[in-house]
């Protein structure tokens, strides 16, 4: 089907782009306030980066990645998320040599072979941040506050922040053993994914979406009771700082997120009116990720937001602004003998910074005026034979339906002055 986009993808049409720009502008503005700078990474990476970074036992790596072999017999994967790519860039370009923290943000397309649904596509877009080089709970709290600030700035009010500590390599082994003891009697009736992860990564069993298995997981031992002193103190520090910032939150001991690189703080922000697919932001700390992919032992924290999901939330609540699309001038030229003069005028107006269009189809005067109206032109510049014989054109104010003759040589200067009155 050459006239249909592949399943799980969508075209973002011109009438939608202004909404994307509006949301992106808010994100960029607030990131600048918090000291984050933009990074743009390749849309594909070596497959091993995601296997080592995200984790072999995650749904993303096991089921959802778009992976292929290139002509050099290298395994390449379209990025399913951007944290691993940002960390790779951090290592490759020795950004760790700069004063910490390194604060980065990104906006771009990601790819996962997933079941398409409302606000969820196989090619989707994420905004996210990464802060590397600081261990303090203050950077965790700041990252969460940044996410909350963006969502509130966009007008979303019914936000529900969930946080948890998923521990570290020092305290996870104890929790792992408790999880296996708990799930072992139930394992025979659980899904094949849970059975395969029971030995490899039992923490993933808490994230199973199968209703029967999810109910079993609800009674599993909490990691909170197994946290080492360092993780416990870190989590207490995050909670205190969020409270000090006036950010409401719920501690959810079942929140583990879907990626293996998380340590200590994990969080998710839900927008309640979206219902079952309410998560609009998720993230956490990943202290071992930089070292895992071959870099130094540098800590980090980050989050990602699904752009489509956020736009869906804003649209459902009528929170997107009305965009007034239009042009400054439309050149009306009924007689094709005058086309050269009209064309040169359009060029001059554009060079002067004015949004200008003209007729390409040699339509009638009436049809061209209708087109000027459809394009929401502020002014129509009419190249009539009689006026041109006098060295003039007719300038029509489309909103006021008034018109006047002006000299051809003064079109640019006069239009610039008139258009400024609308700004």
Report on this model:
This protein has helices at about 15-35, 45-55, 60-65, 85-90, 135-155, 170-185, 190-200, 210-215, 230-245, 290, 305-315, 340-350, 365-375, 385-390, 410-420, and strands at about 35-40, 45, 65-70, 75-80, 100-110, 125-130, 160-165, 250, 265-270, 280-285, 300-305, 325-330, 355-360, 375-380, 390-395, 400-405. By secondary structure, it is α+β, with helices and mostly antiparallel strands. The strands form 3 sheets. An 8-stranded mixed sheet has the order 1-5-6-11-10-9-7-8, with helices on both faces. Strands 13-12-14-15-16 form a 5-stranded mixed sheet, with helices on both faces. Strand 12, helix 12 (about 340-350) and strand 13 form a beta-alpha-beta unit. Helix 5 packs parallel to helix 9 (about 230-245). The chain is elongated, with a radius of gyration of 28 Å. The mean pLDDT is about 90.
